[in-house]
Amino acid sequence: MKALVIDDSRTMRRIVTGILTPLGFEVTEAADGQQALDAMNAGLEVDLACVDWNMPVLDGLSFVTAVRRERKWRDVTLMMVTTESEQAQIVRALAAGAHEYLIKPFTPDAIRDKLQLLGLVELEESA
Amino acid sequence: MSFEIDVQAFEGTDPVYDIASEVFAAMIDGEPGFVRPWEGAPPAPVDELFAWVDVTGPMNGRVLLSTETTTAVEVTRALLGLAPDEPVVHADIVDALGEVANVVGGNVKSLGPDHSVLTLPEVTKERPTTEGGLLHTLSLDWRGRLLVLSLWMLP
């Protein structure tokens, strides 16, 4: 599975990458939505995009909207990972085409749980 | 409109402290209990770094995190899971402290009215202008190190 982590914070990209890599994802990072779109237009294959909301150049909601507009990217799973916790904003993101929404701060378990819900990682067997 | 968060209205708990505790437990320490209110008078900090985000719209305010650079280095190490002897570059410190301010600020924003907007974080060695007045301040003890979270009204 290939993941694209989009966040203007290098720290946050490293944290999310550090969670996704042991789960089997091959991760590419982008510092804003436009950089991510450019990479995808250049041929980067993406199964999962983890998208921050507040970013310079092109924000996360605009990125989600742009991806959903393109038929070639219909299989890309989009998960917002953001500090935006306002209910109306969550609804906007989901309406724009995001599949899941994770509010910062998050734990590694929280990301794994979301990915399990999305069917991107296998469910852990109970002890 | 100014920053309208009544921190006294949360039935004896400080919502800003709760947010800080959650941020450090989830992102920095991996478990709760390493952040507590600073006991007694906090020491005068030296060589400080300031990280902040502004909230604009129905409320206008600034969420400011300040700490000594040496503490910011340790926060960065913890965030990135670096070993004690691994070097930390200044750009990483700036980015990490800014992201902590961003996450705290985003959660503080959620305490106020809807439709406010969060700015991107800024980090400087100089204290930013805070002309609108102090709304709330919280001195925190993180592993024996001082961090100060404050909310400011913007003019």
From TrEMBL, chain A:
Coiled coil: none
Domain Response regulatory: residue ranges: 2-119
PROSITE patterns assigned: RESPONSE_REGULATORY
InterPro entries: Bact_response_regulator, CheY-like_superfamily, Sig_transdc_resp-reg_receiver
GO biological process, one term: phosphorelay signal transduction system
Residues the record lists as 4-aspartylphosphate modifications: D52
Keywords in alphabetical order: Phosphoprotein
Protein name according to UniProt: Chemotaxis protein CheY
UniProtKB/TrEMBL annotation, chain B:
Signal sequence bounds: none
Keyword tags: Chemotaxis
Residue intervals of the Chemotaxis phosphatase CheX-like domain: 51-127
GO biological process, any: chemotaxis
Source superkingdom: Bacteria
Descriptive protein name: Chemotaxis phosphatase CheX-like domain-containing protein
Organism the protein comes from: Actinotalea fermentans
